[in-house]
Each structure stands twice: as C-alpha cells, then as structure tokens.
Amino acid sequence: MKFLPISLVSLLVTGCSAFAPTPSFHSTQPGLNAVPRKDSYDITLLPGDGIGPEITEATKKVISSLCKRCGFEINMNEALIGGAAIDEKNDPFPDDSLEQCLNSDSVLLACIGGYKWDKNPRELRPETGLLKMRKEMGLFANLRPAKVLPQLIDASTLKREVVEGVDVMVVRELTGDVYFGTPKGIDVVDGQRVGYNNMIYSESEIERIARVAGDVASKRGGQLCSVDKANVLDVSQLWRDVVTDITTKEFPDIELSHMYVDNAAMQLIRYPKQFDTIVCGNIFGDILSDEASMLVGSLGMLPSASIGESGPGVFEPCHGSAPDIAGENKANPLAMILSAAMMLRYDLERPTEAQLLEDAVEAALDKGLRTADIKIDGDNCELVGCVEMGEAVADLVTSLDLKTPIEV
Ligand code: IPM
Ligand code: MG
Predict the structure, then answer these.
(1) 272 preceded by cis ω (within 30°)?
(2) What's the pTM?
(3) How many CA atoms lie within 13 A of 49 on its CB side?
(4) How many CB atoms lie within 10 A of CB 309?
(5) Whose CA is nearest to atom 1 of ligand 1?
(6) 157: CB partners within 8 A, 6+ apart
(7) Is 260 annotated as catalytic?
(8) Which residue, by CA, sits nearest to atom 2 of ligand 1?
(9) Cβ(356)–Cβ(337) under 8 Å?
(10) Which residues line ligand 1 (CB under 6 A)?
(11) CA angle 145–24–342, rounded 5-degree value
C-alpha cells in the first residue's frame, strides 16, 4: 500500500466497505498504486492470540473459495506476533516476522493479547509487538470505518433513531504521540515513583496524517472534524494549527471543524450523524474509534486498514483477542473477512473480488446468520459459531451472483 492511494480512499467514500456501492478503484496519484494486479500473491497471515487463530481459519477458507471461483492465487504464509510469538520466540514481534511482512504483498492480522501475558514486563507484552510492527512498517495512518448496517441496527446499545444511517470514518495517526514519545518511564523522585510519557508530534507527522484525512474526507462527505485538546495541551495547539494549514491550502473544498476530545466523546453518542470524517492523534483515536465502533453494535463487524507511504499495508479487525471466548467457537469472523476484502481492494488491485466478499458477508447476514455478539433476543435469527459463519460466507462466495464480471 502506497501513500494514501485513492484506491484506499474509495473505501472511505461510504465508510465500511462491506455495504458500500462498488467504489472506483483507480488511483489518480501516479506512482502511488497498490501492488500491481497479478495472478498470484503472497500475503502474510498473523493469527496472533485468543480468538485470532479461529477467525484466521475461517478467513482462510473464505479466501480459498474466493480464489477458486475467481481464478487467482493467494499464498497465505503465517508468521508469529503477540503472545504466540512470546511463547515461541520470547519476542512479541520477532525480526523474521517483520522481514516476512515487509516482503509480502500485504498483511492480514487477526488480533493479539491475553491475560496470560498481562503481567509481563513491557518488552514481553503482546501489545509491544503490535506497536513495533506499526513503527517498523511505517504504518502511520489507521482508518477505522464505523458504518451502521441496516441488518444490525438493533444490535447497538443506542436507540435506533440515534444510530440509523451513521457512517463515520476515524482517521487515526498511528506511529506518534504519547504511544511512542520519549522520554518515558517510571523513576523514583524524592522517594516516590513517578511515571511519565511524552505526548509529542512534529509538524511533518501532523502534515502527513492531515493529508490522508483531507483526501479521505474529500472522497466521502467533504466534512472533516479534527479532534484535539488544544484548550490545555501545547501539542494539540500545534496539531490544530497544522491541520488547519494543510486543509485550507490543499483541500479548500473541505468543511473543517475542530472539537475538543472530551466534547467529541460526548457528541459521538449524543448525535453521531453529525460526523463524517474524524482525524485525531494516536491516543485520542484509540479511544474514539472504540467508541465509534459501538455505534455499529459490535466490534466484531469492523475492519480496519493501516497504511504507510510505501510497502504493504496491514489489514485487521478493530476488535481485540477476546480471550474469554477463545477456543469456544463463539467468535465473529466477519471483521477479519471484511479486512481481507479491504486488503483485496486496496493492496492487491482486486476490487471485484473484494466486492464479492463483501456481498457474501451481507448475504450471510440477510440469511439471518448471527454470531453471539450480534444476536439479539427474539430476533428470529440463527445463532451460529465462528466455523459455521466462515463456511456460510465461503459457500456464498462460491454461489452468489456476481454484480460485476470477474476480469481474468
Ligand atoms: C488498537 C489497540 C492497540 C492500541 C493496543 C492493543 C496496543 O487498542 O489497535 O486500538 O492501543 O493501539
Ligand atoms: Mg484500541
């Protein structure tokens, strides 16, 4: 995935790609295309922890039936990340995993983390592996769409009239901020422990994410809300100034607004339809994207894309590893399947195939299949497990009518 390919942006036109009309794919930015379309791709799968291996299995089956139907190959090679990597290699993202990811056409990640490693020293925690991956692969832009699907409106904890029609895209900066700033640590000062991190952004870091957000917003509803805490934080004042500068100069047609993060958190549940595209720093984006995802009803439905200026992107569900239900065949594989669709569209130049995958997911929901996280009491839908949901989508990929003929 190259710097903000328009191809990726096209996903964002309508938020969650799963239920969007087929977006136009072609990049208008020369030299910024995804991997050239080919007959055989190599991707890295990172199953990670908790429910990760189950949803990866389900997604692999779906990808295999897609390839079979559409006449191309995706070689899926697994690598270690997170707790699984700690257990096997004593390193949450070993260099050979990084190497493999960098040499792939694209990367599909399930999820990481679990109670087992929660008390480890920081360098041996699964999250450290994820952060290393983001930093080393230069994935500075994280796009998290939250689009409410008609089939799942009642799965939201919010009232129907509040969430119906919601289509928000959170553009989160992913390799800076208090996540990576130094100095950081826990020291002893005057006889007591003091913990500190550094919330820091350079101008160029803000500029590049502002450009991604501007591009995304211009391909969606043309409204960009930049979230910060400029009433208190200097780093946020710089953020606000730079975002304003870039947007006014480079995206004059965009309607830019600014909101303090505390207000944004409140507005997101009060009246979410006021938002189109939100741009924010790493920590605010972490928090707000989880909040936005619950508008949709379940984190189990949301894919995401992380991209950099060059090299493969990483596509992953927004949800965590749900260790409480791991191994029980209760997980929802749809967010990972939809992440695979995003990968096909934005890294592998296979938009028609991506659409078929997305249509198959929608068709499975239309058939009334529901995993536990999206099942509502008395909804007359059929409760299925991760395996069954994966198989249903794989079957639908094989049998569904194509809206657009596959190019061979
Ligand atoms: C996310 C997660 C990660 C983050 C954790 C697991 C390190 O919450 O992707 O949102 O904080 O970025
Ligand atoms: Mg998070």
Answers:
(1) no
(2) 0.88
(3) 27
(4) 14
(5) 286
(6) 294, 297
(7) no
(8) 286
(9) no
(10) 113, 127, 130, 286
(11) 40
Q: Does pLDDT of 387 surpass 50?
A: yes
Return the ligand number nearest the Cα of 180: 1
Which of 229, 346, 347, 359 is flagged as catalytic? 229
Q: Tens of pLDDT along 181-224?
A: 999 999 999 999 999 999 999 999 999 999 999 999 998 999 99
Tally of CA atoms within 13 A in the half-sphere of 332 that contains its CB: 26
- Annotated active-site residue 290? The verdict is yes
- Identify the structural domains of the chain with CATH numbers, from first to last: 34-137+311-408 (3.40.718.10), 148-297 (3.40.718.10)
* 303-307/106-111 β-pairing: unpaired
Active site residue 41: no
Give the C-alpha separation, 389 to 51, whole Å.
14
Per-residue pLDDT, 405: 66
To 10 degrees, what angle do helices 126-136 and 95-102 make? Answer: 40
Q: Closest Cα to atom 12, ligand 1: which residue?
A: 286
**pLDDT above 70: residue 393:** yes
What residue ranges in 5-48 does DSSP mark as E strands?
40-48
Among 220, 230, 287, smallest CA distance to 259 is for 230
